[in-house]
Amino acid sequence: MNIELKHRPETLTQTNDLVKEYVMSLNEGETFYDLGSCVGTYGILAYSRGLKVCCFEVDKVNFTALNENFFWNFGYKDDFKSFNIGIADKKGELELRIGQPEVGGHHKTLALNSFCGHPSAAQHHIVTKVEVNTLDNLIKEYNLPTPTHLKVDIDGSEYAFLQGAHESLSAAKTIIIELFEPNEYFQKIIDTLEKEYKFKLVKQSNELEFGLRDYWFEK
User: Fold this and answer.
1) Which of 49, 161, 189, 219 has the fewest C-beta atoms under 10 angstroms from its C-beta?
2) Cβ within 8 Å of residue 13, ≥6 positions away
3) Nearest by Cα to 57 from 83, 22, 19
4) Rounded distance, CA 39 to CA 61, Å?
5) Mean pLDDT across the chain, nearest whole number?
6) Which range, of 14-28, 60-74, 87-101, 203-217, averages the lowest pLDDT?
7) Cβ of 25: how many Cβ atoms within 10 Å?
């Protein structure tokens, strides 16, 4: 099925996109979790390929655009879930630092002690309070299907995500995660995925920015 986006349509036609390649490799009927959905490009693409989809986007502007983009293509569907919440290491409330407030903007970072993103992502103009929770908690609270595949692009919250996703990572077959290499948490994240959860690195992207790449793992 051909899909169109009302917001940020150019994201469908980006070249050298490892995340798109990853999504296009997934099998119909499985469950795809999109953590850091932005305007929903990859979640909507996965849904168009017959996957069940759960999207998580912390920023209200992007969350609204995500749902409008989905409704633009499919209307309301029970097997597409979206949540305006941040993924962290515990349930609570945190400051969200917003560097690009426009629709589709990036640099929306949680004020975590374990922040591990690109330094430019933490530069901000707006600060607001947002709800956060662990992925495992959210699956239990909302009775969500277990993820088969995970895409994680959460602007420096990746280490916190790992701390609250033991059951999800144990069950998942694949994960693609955006990581900033020049920081103390990078190797800890890689080691956790490979040693504790038995993932193996399949591919990595070219640099998206200095030190920032997508890493594709499979079991």
Assistant:
1) 219
2) none
3) 83
4) 9
5) 93
6) 14-28
7) 13
Asked whether residue 15 carries a pLDDT value surpassing 60, the answer given is no
Q: Are 134 and 91 in contact (CB under 8 A)?
A: yes
* Whole-number Å distance between alpha carbons of 11 and 9: 5
Concatenate the DSSP letters of all residues of the chain into one string.
-----SS-GGGGS-SS-HHHHHHHTSPTTSEEEEES-TT-HHHHHHHHTT-EEEEE---HHHHHHHHHHHHHHH-S-TTEEEE--EE-SSSEEEEEEES--STT---EEE--TT--S-GGGG--SEEEEEEEE-HHHHHHHTTPPPPSEEEE--TT-HHHHHHT-HHHHHH-SEEEEEEESSSTTHHHHHHIIIIIS--EEEEEPPPSBTTEEEEEEE-
* Angstrom distance (rounded) from CA 66 to CA 74: 12
How many residues in the chain?
219
The whole-model pTM stands at: 0.94
Q: Tell me what the mean pLDDT of segment 15-38 comes to.
A: 93
Q: Which residue has the higher pLDDT, 154 or 107?
A: 154
Q: ∠ CA 214-216-218 to the nearest 5 degrees?
A: 165
**Predicted local distance difference test score (pLDDT) of residue 13:** 72
194 half-sphere exposure, CB direction, 13 A CA radius: 11
